[in-house]
Structures are given as structure tokens and as C-alpha cells.
Amino acid sequence: MTPMTVTLSDVAREAGVSLATASRAINGSANRTVRPDLREKVLDAARRLRYSPDANAQAMARGRTTALGLIVHDIADPYFSTIASGVTSAAERAGLVVTLASTERDGDRELAFVELMQRQRARAIILAGGRTADEEANARLSSALEEYRSRGGGVAAVGQPLLGVDTVTIENQRATGELASRLHALGYRRFGVLAGPEGHLTAEARFEGLRDGLAGLGVEIDDAHVVRGPFTRDGGFEGMRTLLGRSADGTCPVDAVFAVNDVMAVGAMAAARAAGLSVPDDVAIAGFDDILTLRDIVPSLTTIRLPLADIGVMATELALAPPRDEPRVVPVDGQVIVRDSTPRRS
């Protein structure tokens, strides 16, 4: 092996330590030191392998950057923009400037942004958005984040704890299980679901929570009343049109429709009106997130409230905190808010 081919991973393997420990031993760290005996093992391994440290990695590890990278799935979605407001507030208090990237829910773009922020020596990276069931894509992203962390960067995520980093995770299933109970108590028995994209773990968890909660109350959701589609307003609009089209007589085939996020619910309300139906007289509708734009929606939308700005603050604090050997998982619960879109059925 020549000096040009030796990587920090090689040194860590030779010394019998983690990549993060090897990085802290060689590059230094603004937040954490390495035991003297471990540091000496790493340095001995580096000398044997003739490893040359990366000057940029050392600069990042010693906290010389003032940028925090925030990567979201869709900045036009109020869910993400409100989380971003919390990240920005917390970053400003820490003396950092936020660099924002929107992936448009493209996994390759997300990975490319992580690599770009590593090259730009960002102090920390926050990824906001649910994961998919694509294990290979998750593994590639996890590997890139581990490389970034090994160079001294901090990382946190909002979503499922699948990337090996500190994560703020939403209790989606528990919340929609509670929503199922509340809607059932209001008299609803026939449900449709705008279930979001296939394989999106947040969408799946929200759907499963509602389905399982209703099943426990003796109510089954007909597969014909479950419509998949994009996590967007237009996805909700088209999904509702599809659901209404499955009725032979032009009436709504269900009493209530649950959309797995609020922007889809807003699209569903518009589609119902376009079809000449009244919300909630002809069909009740509920969402998830309690985005700020719901203040202007008529009728007011039943939903599950998340403290979105606070979630952004929590994620920032995790990303900037001293690293630990095991990733931290911070659960956040939602609160069911019943409004005019789901009145009690007579």
C-alpha cells in the first residue's frame, strides 16, 4: 500500500478503533478528546501506514467553519419551512449561518448535497425528511454521513433513525392511532386514505397507525379506498379525484378521508369542492402536521399538531452537541386537534 492510497478508514482498521475515534485522534476535535492510549495507537498506525492527514478535515474538526447545512425534501412545503425557521433561530444563537438545500425528494440529490457540504467544510448538517424503504440508498447516505462525521462535522436528522446519527423522530403511528379513536368516537365508520408515496416510511407509519387503530375498534379500511400519490397538494387533489371516481353513482364512497399530511388534505378539500361536494357535509377530511397555512383554510382542518419549529431547534442542538458513541433518538409526539372538517355525525 502506498501513501497515496491510505485512507483514514485504513488507519482506524489498523488501530482497531472506530473511524470517529481515529479522526479525533489525528484531526483533533472542538468537542471531544481521545484517551491518550487510544490516541497513541492511532498515531502509531498512521505512522506505520504513512498516512497523511487532510488539512481540510483538520480545519473542520477544530471548529473553524461557521456554516450549518440544512437539507430538506421540499422547501415549498410549510412542514419543512417551519422546521427550517427553528433551525435558523437556533443556528443564529450559536453564531452560525444556515445554508439551505432542497432535494425535491430525490435521494441522489440529497447525497450530492451532503458531499458538497463536506467539501465546503460546514460545521454541521441537518437532514429533515422521512426515509424510504430503499436500504441501498439509506446505506449510501449513512456512509457519506459517517465519513463527514469522521472529519469532525456534526449531524442530526428529522425522521426515522436509520442513518446512524442523532435523530428527532416523530411518533407517527401513535398519533394516527389516537386520531382513529377520536374520529370513531365522532361516528365515522367508512374511511378513505390518501396514503402518500409507496415505500415512504413516514407515510406508511401514519397510514398503519390509522388502520391499526380502527381495526382495534372493529372498523376495516377497504383497499379500494386507499389511494397512493405524491406528498403534495396536487397529489392530494388527484388522489381525492381518484377516490371519488371509484363510486358508481358519483357520491363519495366514504364518510371521512385521512390524508397523511396537511398539504395533501388541502388538495383533497379542493378536489371535493370541484366535484360539487361539501366538506364536511358530504365528506369529512383530516390531515397531519398542523402547518401554519391551515389558519386560512375553510372549514378549519382536523389534524395532528407537531411542534415543527421546536423540532428544528432540537435537531440543531443535537447536531452541535458533543458527539457520543451511540446515536441519540429524541421522540416527539403529536396532538390530535379536532376542528370543523370532522364534525360529530348525527
End-to-end C-alpha gap: 78 Å
Mean pLDDT: 91
Largest sheet: 6 strands, parallel
Side by side, the strands of the main sheet go: 2-1-3-4-5-11
Low-confidence stretches: none
How much of the polypeptide forms β-strand, as a percent range? 5-15%
Shape: elongated
Number of strands: 12
Class computed from helices, strands and strand pairing = alpha/beta
User: What's the CATH class label of the largest domain?
Assistant: Alpha Beta
Using only CA atoms, what is the Rg? 24 Å
What is the ordering of alpha helices and beta strands?
Answer: HHHHEHEHEHEEHEHEHEHEEHEE
Secondary structure tally, helices: 12
Oligomeric state of shown chains: single chain
What keyword list fits this structure?
Rossmann fold, 434 Repressor (Amino-terminal Domain), transcription regulation, 44% helix, alpha/beta, 346 residues, six-stranded parallel sheet
Walk me through this protein's architecture.
44% of the residues lie in helices and 14% in strands. By secondary structure, it is an alpha/beta fold. Helix 2 crosses helix 3 and helix 8 runs parallel beside helix 9 (201-215). The chain is elongated, with a radius of gyration of 24 Å.
Write the layout of secondary structure elements.
Blueprint: H1 8-15, H2 19-27, H3 36-49, H4 55-61, E1 67-72, H5 78-93, E2 97-102, H6 107-119, E3 124-128, H7 135-150, E4 154-158, E5 166-170, H8 172-185, E6 191-194, H9 201-215, E7 226-227, H10 233-245, E8 256-259, H11 262-274, E9 284-286, E10 303-305, H12 308-320, E11 329-332, E12 335-337
Parallel strand pairs: 1-2, 1-3, 3-4, 4-5, 5-11, 6-7, 6-8, 8-9
Antiparallel strand pairs: 10-12
Helix pairs in contact: 1-2, 1-3, 2-3, 2-4, 2-7, 5-12, 6-7, 8-9, 10-11
